[in-house]
Amino acid sequence: MISHGLSDEELQCIEEQLVEARSRAYCPYSKFHVGCVLFVRGTQDPYICGCNIENASFGATICAERVAMLKAMSNGCQERWTALAIIGDTSGPRDKVITPCGMCRQVMNEFIKDRETFPILMYSPDLKKLQVTNLNELMPMPFNL
Ligand code: THU
Predict the structure, then answer these.
(1) In a domain, 25, yes or no
(2) What is catalyzed by this enzyme (predicted)?
(3) For ligand 1, atom 2, which residue shows the shortest CA distance?
(4) Among the options 10, 16, 20, 65, which is catalytic?
(5) In a domain, 144, yes or no
(6) What is the domain extent for residue 47?
């Protein structure tokens, strides 16, 4: 099992922020709400949130994970990433954790430096199940230039 190395307090904040982030999803087409929290310990804004933002031109839709990661990058918060957590919609299977899409895995591969120890927390919609993974597991043999 992969450990997340987060304190109970950090985990609780991540969970609260996840639910709030998910509530801000703009998903009139799929109606599938996703929330993401990129936790960057020790910074002024340690819980960087993302939600999925859809578009009538479907290809312009962006996932919650990429919103959170790109917000961090554009805010100048490019280092010291501690953990990334995601949660899916309650209309999906309640006991199943959400796993990130392929495009988000490729973006994670770009910015997450430690493929083995950086924890990726995948929650069930009701927060009752948590599965922790890493990039080696999620994306073996990644594309790199
Ligand atoms: N979605 C995410 O936000 N993250 C993922 O990892 C998978 C899919 C969003 C995109 C779209 O708005 C909706 O979920 C249905 O695919």
Answers:
(1) yes
(2) cytidine + H2O + H(+) = uridine + NH4(+); 2'-deoxycytidine + H2O + H(+) = 2'-deoxyuridine + NH4(+)
(3) 63
(4) 65
(5) no
(6) 8-138
Strand partners, 130: 123
Dump pLDDT digits (tens) for 77-115. Answer: 999 999 999 999 988 888 899 999 999 999 999 999 999
Provide the number of structural domains found in the chain: 1
Report whether 101 belongs to an annotated binding site: yes
Residue 38: phi, psi to the nearest 5? -100, 115
Q: Is 106 in the pocket of ligand 1 (CB under 6 A)?
A: no
Known catalytic residue at 10: no
Is the shortest distance between the CB of 100 and ligand 1 below 6 Å? yes
The pLDDT of residue 135: 98
What distance in Å separates the CA atoms of residue 144 and residue 106, rounded to the nearest whole number?
9
Q: What is the mean pLDDT of the chain?
A: 96
57 within some domain: yes
Q: Which single residue is written with the structure tokens 């312009």?
A: 60
d(CA 38, CA 48): 5
Tell me which amino acid residue 13 is: C
Domain for residue 19, yes or no? yes
Q: Give the model confidence (pLDDT) of 50-87 as tens digits.
A: 999 999 999 999 999 999 999 999 999 999 999 999 99
Question: What is the chain's alpha carbon radius of gyration, rounded to the nearest angstrom?
Answer: 14
- CB 81, CB 65: distance < 8 Å: no
